[in-house]
3-hydroxyacyl-CoA dehydrogenase
Amino acid sequence: MQQISVVGAGTMGRGIAYTAALSGFRVKLHDIDDSNLKQAEASIETLLQKSADKGFIDRDQSEAAKQQLNSENDLQAAVHEADVVIEAVLEEIPLKVEIFRKLDEYCPDQTVLATNTSTLSPTEIGAATNRPEKVIAMHFFNPVHKMKLIEIIKGLDTSEKTVRIVQDLGEKMNKETVEVNEFPGFVTSRMNCLIGNEAMNMYMEGVASAEDIDKALKLGLNHPMGPLELADLVGLDSRLRNMNYLYETLGEKYRPCPLLLKYVKAGKLGRKSGEGFYNYR
């Protein structure tokens, strides 16, 4: 593997691109929005600078990663030489299916197509292509450069060769991987959404403040981040999309907390909007 192409320059896409470039891969980061690409470039450069200043990487690694990373707003130009494409757009099946149809057309026959998703079906996405055996899900975690895990989720037709390729990619990116058979929510999202939704219900019911609910889980259950803090970090709109999908596929216990719906309607989406369960303004 030489070139990794990342489709989508949001929080997850730029995190994956940063990690891949720092791991020695040639990286092309694609987004149709030039302003998103410019923000991603600035964010990655800032992160490289901070990592070097703090001694997590040396200056040579930082400069090498900058040379490895290029931005491209034309999808075909971004992926036509890719060994692996990692798509990291919104958690919406129609959007992902549309992108994968284009990737199938633009990429070499041997290219592996991976979707970064926390809940959605790689089988359904792969069925939109002529290479379902080369389609797989790679669930990265935010922030990508710090979180050690990648969930690897096989679709119905995903080949063992494809699994081995993305396991090798994860190892080269200094990540641990777990192999999961496709089922809604996989492993981590099923558990995380349940915990987060119950925390929202407790907050709505007045059981405790947001701060104390998060403090209780961090200190009492040894969670590195409280569930309400984490929901704000992920984005409450993203969490609601995940909850709705799990509610539709797994039933009543995943019904979204009414307060989550209310916050999203009000535009209180967490860190990215400046306010969610906490105020970041």
Observations:
- The radius of gyration is 19 Å.
- The CA atoms of residues 148 and 175 lie 5 Å apart.
